[in-house]
Structures are given as C-alpha cells and as structure tokens.
Amino acid sequence: MKSFLKYTLATIVGVIIVHILMIFIFFGFIGIIASFGDKPAEVKNNSILHLQFKGNIPDRASANPMDNFNFMSMKSIESTGLNDILKNIGKAQKDDRIKGIYLDLTEIESNFGGLATTVEIRNALQEFKASGKFIYSYSNLGYSQKSYYLATIADSVFVNPESPLILAGMGGTSFFYKDMLDKIGLKVDIVKVGKYKSAVEPFTQTEMSPANREQIETYLKSLWGHLLLGISETRPISVDSLNWLADHLEIRTPETDKAYGLFDGVFYEDTMLDILKEKCGIKPEDKLNFISLNDYKKAAVPNIKSEIIKDKIAVIYASGEIGISQTATTIGPELAQTVRKARKDKNIKAIVLRVNSPGGSALTSDIIWREVQLASQTKPFIVSMGNVAASGGYYISCAADTIVADPTTLTGSIGIFGQFFSGEKLFKDKMGITGSTVKTNAHSDFGGGAPLPLPISNRPLTTYEKEVLQKYIERGYETFLSRVAQGRHMTRDEVHEIAQGRVWTGADALQVGLVDVLGGLEQAIEIAAYKAGIEKYRITEYPVEKDFLEELLNNFSSSAKTRIMKEELGNFYETFRQLQEFKNIPQGLMARIPYNLAIE
Question: Is residue 489 part of a domain?
Fold first, then answer.
C-alpha cells in the first residue's frame, strides 16, 4: 500500500512539474517573440531592394505570429501584406540609397497571391521603373505563368539554364460528390435563385451545367487575355505567338525560350550577382548591399520631414468568408461596427473598404451593407476590390460612391442559395443510428442536426418546407437586387439581367455597370482623397491590430487548428471549411461565389 501511495504521489508531482515547466516554456517563447520589435534597419548607400515572395500575400499581414507558423515543420512562414509591399516599393522609388530592385522569384510559391494581387504589385514595379531605377528578375527554379507575368515588368528577365517555363493557358476542374453522397445515403435539398448560381452543383450533379461552363470559359479567357497582353507589352513577343506556344505544349529549353524573346539571359545565380555588382559599380570581390522588404519597411527615408497631419483616410480590410463572427480570416457583423466608427470620426475624411471576399452569410452581408450605405451618405466611400469581391462580397460593396476593381478581380455573382443535408439513410442503414424526436409544433425539428461536425439533419425537408425556403430565397434575391439597383442607379430588371449568380471579371464588370474604375488599392485611396478635397492625409488601417499578447493568447488554438487542417486536407480544405461555415450561417442562406480560383 505504501509503495502504491509513493508511486501515485510521485506521478502526481511529476505531472505538476511538467505542467509548470510547459507554462514557463510557453511564456518564455512568447517573451522571445515579443522581444523582436521593429528596430530601425540600416540602409546603406548603393543598396538593392531584394524582393522575394516566400508565402501567401494577404491584403494585410496578421500581427499574430502564430498565423504564420507551420506546426508540421515547426517553422515560421514569412508573410508580408500587399499594403506593405506597395508602400515600400513607393518608398524605395524616392529613396536615393536604393539603386534598383532585384526581383528574386526563386522561392516563390504558386499560391503566393491571386492574379489581382500580382497585377497590383506589377503596377507598383512599373511606376518604380519609370523613375529611372532598374529592376532585374531572376529565378533558379523556373517561372510559373503568374510569376513570369510579374517578372516581365523588369528591365531584364533571367533564368537558370535548367529551369522550365511552361505556358499552357488557364483551366480549372470542378469535383462533384453526388454519386458518393448517394452511395453513403446522404440526401441534399437545394433552394436557389439564378441559373449561374452553381455553388450547389458539386452536391447535386455529376458534371458542370452549361450555364456554369459558359461563365467559367468567359472569365478564364478574360483573365488569360489580360495576362498575355501584359506580357506582350513588355516583352518582344506577340499575343498570338504566346498563344501558339501555349497550344503547342512542346519541350523547350530556356535557350529556346530566349530565342522566342521570353528571356534576356540564361545563366546560374553567381553570374546574376556579378551583373548586379556591375550595375551598381561594385567591385567583383565586394558584397552587394541587399536589403529585404521586411527590413526595409522598418527603415526611415532621410531628408523627409515628419509633420502632424490631422486629416485621415480610413482603409478598412474586409478579407475572407462572411460569417456570423469575425476572426483573422473571416468577416463578421463586427465589420459594420468598424465602418460606423470610421463614419463618426470627424478626422476621417474618406473611407476605403478593401474587399477580398467570396461572400457567405446573406444576413451578415446585409448588416454590413447598411453601415456602408450610411457612411456613403456622410463622406466619400470608395470600395477597392482585390482578387475576389463576389456575391456577399459585392453585396457589402454596392452602396459605395465609387467601386474600383482590378481587371482580373472576380466579382458579381449576385444571387442567393441554400443547401440542406439530410442523413436518414446514412444514419440508419450505414451506421446503425436511429433517433426519436419530441416536438411541440409541426416543424419544431426543421433542420434538426445530428451529432456530427457537419450540417446534417436527421430527416429530409418536407415539400411544404422546401416551398417556404424557396420563397424565402426569392425574397432574399429580390432584396439583393434592390440593394444593387439603389447603389448602382439601375432598375431592378437591369440588375437582374446581369445578376442570376453570374461571375464577372473586373474588366467585364466595368462594361455592364457593376464597377466604376479599373485599378488597385492605391488608385482607390487617390480617388478617396480627391473626393474629400484633401492633399495631405495619413492612412489609418482597420480593424485595429490587437495587443501582441492578447492576439497571441486569443488565437493560439484556432490558428494552430486551422494551419494543421490546411496541411492535412490540402486542396480539400476549402470544401471542408465551406461546409463548416455553412453549419453556422443563420437560416442556412448563402450569398457566395460558387468556387475558389487558384491561378498559377
């Protein structure tokens, strides 16, 4: 008995000690991270801004270090926001210490950013080059179509002798789960409005509908055309020749690509560094003065006097799915409160809402729309659309004074749908689960969920319930049309003609009246300043970043879970996340673009 008590006590003490040590290690880890402040970086004369894009490029990078931490490799992933990239390219343009930019695309990932993000960076580099400073691009591992498009803004494009460039055009594949759902006994009830509202197709069909195929082909051709036009304007090769290369998927070497006019030089990285030294007048034995973007953004530009500027332009970031709560990766009703705060701030003379969202909850979208409408009646309100601002993303945008979109932005998708999963056969026939329901009224168990992490009911919808939901969907669609008609000064029928869930590129949306100007975030800010009648202003970004430790402690578990799920599920993570989000949507009604687009 004494031995038992002794070992039990020793075990308890050991567990307590381990937990105490873990707590000390955890807070020590926090302290180490927190100690990395924004110390001013030294910029030497004759420096080169070394641009590398190693991770995803959000509109604004998160201040929470755990959002960029890879729990599988236990390494931090470098992430820089588009706002910082644009700001510091502009800063380098005016900085006499910066002689040029080395666009190092060796480690760039295929998902480093959407096409609209790439276009905005490319436009900023074009302005930098117009100042007379040089840009050289190089890749040791070859170029994707998107990274090559970015590279072609450089004065010269170089590549490793063994690195490929594959031009194949753009294509996309949709996966359909209907047969699988039938096999496992899962039934899907659909309610929707709009022949192009195809978000439900993967669960109800085995192939694309003609309407969905039509809209996808249309916008892919538009995106591909924009990419080719940009390349042909900066490289000695025509759009027709580029299309010929894409149609003839032959094995080419960098040397043959150079002959086509795609590259200016083919050599190893050491030669690239020698060329940069010669360009900067540096001796071969000396080192180049490289400065990374992350270091340069901490550097001050000399001979620029700081002054107190009272007038502000608020830039509000709306990024991610629209749901019932706001997180680092989702939009919630809290965004409406942020817009309201900016509206009531007398020092804020104009508001720019940066939208990068495929949509989501129709109810939350309407709550945000109301605050956008009120703000636009008070002061200039400009929407800047990023890679995607569709469905609910367009809903929250349509009341703005001016809508600015990139030519490659995916927008529109004006429509609403609902989908309801019932697993009666799955539970009973496949899993041996039965249930008994007690209710006070005829439809008390409507939408009743099973004890699963997905939105699955234990019975199908009745005919009457489907009819009620369809009417509710149609009412929501009419509300959506009225919001757009009011904001865009169109009739209901004019909006309906271009709505019905159809997705448009920014360039095509301009033609049909859904946007006003083609451009990026910088252009939107300029328009806001012009409409407000101010020349000197400072940018205030919202939502306000939380205190470092507060953000870290609040989001540690959720960030870790999200990161691990992304790495484990890979391409299927988006489908899983959408189903999870759908479970939490009030009334299950969604205003969302039907797919996620990745362009490489």
Answer: no
Instruction: Look at residue 281 and tell me whether its pLDDT is greater than 80.
Output: yes
Neighbours of 56 (CB within 10 A): 16
CA distance 119 to 113: 10
Q: Are 528 and 352 in contact (CB under 8 A)?
A: yes
Contact residues for 294 (Cβ-Cβ < 8 A; gap 6+) = 78, 80
Tokens representing 436 are: 């008994």
Strand partners, 153: none
Q: Is the pLDDT of residue 35 over 80?
A: no
Q: Which H or E run contains 562?
A: helix 548-569
The pLDDT of residue 7 is 56
Q: Are 402 and 379 within 8 A, CB to CB?
A: no
Q: Which residues partner with 71 through β-bridges?
A: none
pLDDT tens-digit series, residues 147-206: 999 999 999 999 999 998 989 999 888 889 999 999 998 888 888 888 888 888 988 899
pTM: 0.85
Q: Are residues 285 and 331 in the same domain?
A: no
Answer yes or no: is 142 within a domain. Answer: yes
What is the H or E stretch that residue 353 is in? strand 348-357
CA 441 to the chain's CA centroid? 44
- Nearby residues of 143 by Cβ (< 8 Å), 6 or more positions away: 105, 151, 159, 163, 165
What is the total count of domains within the chain?
A: 2
Kindly provide the b/e burial profile for residues 86-111, where b requires at least 16 CB atoms within 10 angstroms of the residue's own CB.
bebbebbbebebbbbbbbbbbebeee
Tell me, yes or no, whether 272 and 355 share the same domain: no
| 378/26: higher pLDDT | 378
